[in-house]
# Entry
Amino acid sequence: MPKTKISRRKREILNAAAVLFRYKGYAATSMRDLAEKVGLEVSSLYSHIKSKEEILTTLCFHCGDLYSEGLEKIIEMDADALQKIDAIMDLHINIAIDHPSSITVFNDEWKHLSENELQQFLQVRRNYEKGIKQILQEGIDCNLLKDYPLDILMNTMLSSMRWIHYIKTDNNPIDTKITRDIVKKMLLNGVARK
Amino acid sequence: MPKTKISRRKREILNAAAVLFRYKGYAATSMRDLAEKVGLEVSSLYSHIKSKEEILTTLCFHCGDLYSEGLEKIIEMDADALQKIDAIMDLHINIAIDHPSSITVFNDEWKHLSENELQQFLQVRRNYEKGIKQILQEGIDCNLLKDYPLDILMNTMLSSMRWIHYIKTDNNPIDTKITRDIVKKMLLNGVARK
DNA sequence: CCTACCGATCGGTAGG
DNA sequence: CCTACCGATCGGTAGG
# Structure
């Protein structure tokens, strides 16, 4: 996938779309909604984008890249599995806080991708999960992590952070430091005293 | 809200709708899709339901009831906070496994509710979260739980189970006993060894 | 439960 | 970037 430069106007359209898709969903957002939001006529949108679907594709794969490139760096770290898991949690929490709208699209709207892009997307996700599981397995092998099934471990871990982007709105900023600190502690050491 | 009896045919329509909404989303599911799925003409659907929105409303509030009634019973239990939290996790995991489709609608499609129902829905959710937080606070007060902010505690806890309904499909049954057991352990005691 | 049908809205194009 | 416009599809109704 060659990365073509994205004009300022196109960025603006993509950002507006991410916000609309976040709150209304992809299918319920019309190109008229989007045009109004960016102050253009509907037809003018098509000078900057090819189709509604192209927007969704761009948004989904951009987020996919954020995760994949982040994980790549973590895998190459000279660190033990626990430190890598810490870094994975940082990665997810940072992305959630920095890109709450596009991450919601990434999480909830990918199902509207068209066949080709959908398959590609699922492939990216499978790769990502494979990388995560390798790190978890490494943690188990080194006796740093409890020996739980990888699927449950990964899903519960990733899922436990999947509320931050959702809670975070302009009216409801979240305390990044505290949230990050406590979610990590919860995952590593649990909530039960003793 | 008086509970009127629901005919067998209407049940069938609601179930089919839940599955369609789960995989395609509410907005992208047409009444034609639904009619085809239940083997009727589109117009015939309207002998059983008032509108597409009525279906969504019914689905969302039915799930809301499952959670609310479950929590009510837990609150009345003669048990300590840790046992109640255990019961809350059972409640969520059971609902996820027994009703994966309608729970997905409940989680992801409520935003398409119309204004009145939306406000009612959010009220139900706020009440539910208040109940959860009271139990968590109880746990903190009795020194059973670590003293973390209630918001983070609740969101992370509930969120950590929010993948089970999603993973569970007809082709991919999940081992209820193991999943339940391990997710609970992860939440209470963490994943780190030591 | 079906046939026949409707107004509204959708994503998108032609042409400038 | 806009005016003008289009075919397709939408949720839903009338009438039987």
